[in-house]
Amino acid sequence: MSPNDDNSDYQFDFNDDMAGSDGTSPVGDSWNRGASQNPISGSGGASQNPISGTSNRSQNPIGGSSNRSQNPIGGTGRATDPFGNPINQSSYQAYAYTGTPIMVNQPPKTRWGCIVWLIILVSCGLPLVITAAVTVPMLGNLSGEGGFLEGINELISQVTEGLSPPYSEAVVGDAANFNPLTGLAQAQRIAGDGAQFTEFSFTNVRSDGTMDLTDRNQNAYAEYSFLRPIPEPADAPPVGSAGNSGGQWYQPITVRAYEPGQFRSRRTTSNGISTSIQYTNQGMELNLADPTTRPSESVSPLPVCDMAVMWAEAISDFDAPANGVATIRYEGGEYQFSMSTGINIRFTDGCKVVGR
Predict the structure, then answer these.
(1) Closest by Cα among 204, 262, 249, 253 to 224
(2) pLDDT score recorded for residue 84
(3) Contact 184, 303 (CB under 8 A)
(4) Distance from C-alpha of 266 to C-alpha of 278, rounded to nearest angstrom
(5) Neighbour count for residue 313 (Cβ, 10 Å)
(6) Taking CA 311 as the corner, what is the angle to CA 306 and CA 315, rounded to the nearest 5 degrees?
(7) CA gap 141, 135 in Å, rounded
(8) pLDDT, greater one: 273 or 120
(9) If we measure between CA atoms, which residue out of 144, 170, 139 comes closest to residue 284?
(10) pTM
(11) How far apart are CA 184 and CA 303, in angstroms?
């Protein structure tokens, strides 16, 4: 039975075994089990205090006065624990009464749901806001008079172009014994229709006129340059600015043979858009520069002098070490043969020495 109503902070459980077979109280007084008699004093009262026998339903269950909000230990005012220390009633919950109230600490509940939603909002919403803040002004610059949709198309085109790796293909023949002079024909094909040869640069050329493109310690490469005449670009700057001289427009082209199978990383920036890609070079790689009316090189006749012939002249007349490697450049019909030992020789296209 409970001496208090359903809102009471305490529950009391008197076992039926407390009463004798004759219905008497274990403390010596007889009591009516059908009534709500005080099991201590024997006095009646349906709502009687089970300790003192007084009849106030809201009375303190320990023996205090009848204030319903009274301290359950016996004092008035703010609730205290069994030792007289003030307690925070909101942090405790009373369990079944066994003679002395049992106080169980209930820590404040953490609102994990709110915290999780806050983390999701910050992690997802903040990047979207930053992206919008950067992209919208960029689209405005790209759109110009063409409108917002054209600006989006231009942005997509630039990003797609920046994410595309440069074209490359395997070199013809043995990459470990690559002849850079015969490789010019393949480079010309890769450069495309209308491309005109301007110059080349070969590094680590051996005395037999070949190169080992597979040795990464040597960093050997053969680079071929071309110019292709093109119409004036639609986005060309006014004449007199940004390299526009008002003359013929050219597309500079470079084809580079180096280290087949090398894993490469490249970053490009265009109109404020920076892209980074990773790719594998197959052997001979195509690269296109920005169109211009003032290219840094001019069209040259195709080279005909064999690299091995220049090497033989360098060994016989200039004491070049036969087991060494040389750098050979060609532009405007003239070759420049050089070694790190200090040897520098100039040849004509007929393989004739013209100076040092």
Answers:
(1) 253
(2) 67
(3) yes
(4) 6
(5) 16
(6) 155
(7) 10
(8) 120
(9) 170
(10) 0.56
(11) 9
